[in-house]
Design brief:
about 325 residues; alpha+beta; 5-stranded mixed beta barrel
Length: about 325
């Protein structure tokens, strides 16, 4: 069966869904409601539960499976699910959490072996040792966490999948521009978002941790690189340069970057990160529409809708 994101506006649905997030709100007239973000393997959709009472709030917590009947509506260019009926799933329904979790399209084993190969190819011992040390330290969460709470690669193993895609892109770019230092570029890619395993709460119903809110993945990883260098007895310039790559990968201050890229590989890392994140958003949004239709508005892409040409398969 197709997922909830594949239904069109006006269609009625009766499906089991997983609650990813829940927030409480109050209408202008003071009535309580819940905003629920549902998900299945196809992605996520928002819904409002109006006139919610305390029991609803207790029942419909994140990580809960529910059966929902309703219809798809459009609100500000995005699809929403209008709830007609909702109930908690029970054992006899025969559904489990794994039925609803979107995961990376490549196996964890394949991604691990690819990243290991990229580290193996590094020539600079200082860069190689720091990268290997940090990846080993955080390997378990790195392989199962998403790359973000929303917008791009927000699925189980999304972080590792984002890194593998970026590494392959970096290899192609480095073949075109041999002046790039591959060791630096590969290491910067592997480490740039590794702080997210501390910034985010886990692989499902992901939220920001206290450390994530107060310090953030960029500062977390800059500190981790410094600690790793101390533990390994490395004090070369590579340490500072790797820290710069992590510090500058968002590109601009208004995008959350403490420093703009000031090293060639840092500039390219920023572009590679951007290309992969945006392609992931575009592919997922356009997979949900037929040729000749426009996608939902994509907020991080200037809230634009994208058209799928009729000759696209």
């Amino acid at each position: 069966m197709s997922g909830v994101t594949h239904y069109g506006v006006g269609e009625t649905v009766e499906v089991f869904l997983f609650i990813k997030h829940m927030t409480k709100g109050t209408t202008n007239t003071g009535k309580p409601f819940l905003t629920l973000i549902f998900q299945d393997k196809s992605g996520e959709i928002e819904a409002k539960l109006w006139d919610a009472n305390e029991e609803d709030e207790r029942n419909y917590q994140p990580e809960t499976i529910v059966k929902v009947a309703g219809e798809i509506q459009s609100y500000r260019g995005k699809n929403q699910l209008k709830i007609r009926q909702i109930r908690l799933a029970n054992i006899s329904d025969g559904v489990t959490k794994s039925d609803f979790l979107e995961t990376a399209p490549v196996s964890v084993e394949e991604m691990t072996s690819k990243i290991t190969q990229y580290i193996f190819e590094m020539q600079n011992p200082n860069i190689q040792r720091i990268t290997r040390h940090l990846l080993k330290k955080y390997q378990a969460p790195f392989l199962e966490y998403p790359a973000a709470t929303k917008n791009h690669h927000e699925f189980v193993s999304g972080l590792a999948y984002h890194v593998v895609s970026m590494l392959d892109l970096a290899k192609a770019i480095a073949n075109l521009y041999p002046s790039l230092d591959r060791d630096l570029l590969y290491s910067g890619i592997i480490l740039h978002d590794l702080g997210k395993v501390v910034e985010l709460s886990g692989p499902t119903s992901t939220t920001y941790t206290v450390e994530g809110n107060l310090i953030g993945h960029i500062s977390i990883m800059v500190n981790e690189i410094g600690k790793a260098a101390d533990e390994l007895g490395i004090n070369g310039e590579e340490v500072m340069v790797l820290q710069h790559l992590v510090l500058s990968h968002h590109g601009k201050a208004e995008w959350g970057s403490p420093k703009p890229p000031m090293i060639r590989e840092a500039e390219i890392l920023h572009y590679i990160d951007n290309i992969d994140a945006k392609m992931n958003m575009l592919d997922r949004a356009l997979s949900r529409v037929n040729p000749g239709e426009f996608s939902e508005r994509i907020f991080p892409l200037d809230n634009r809708s994208f058209y799928k040409p009729t000759f696209h398969k």
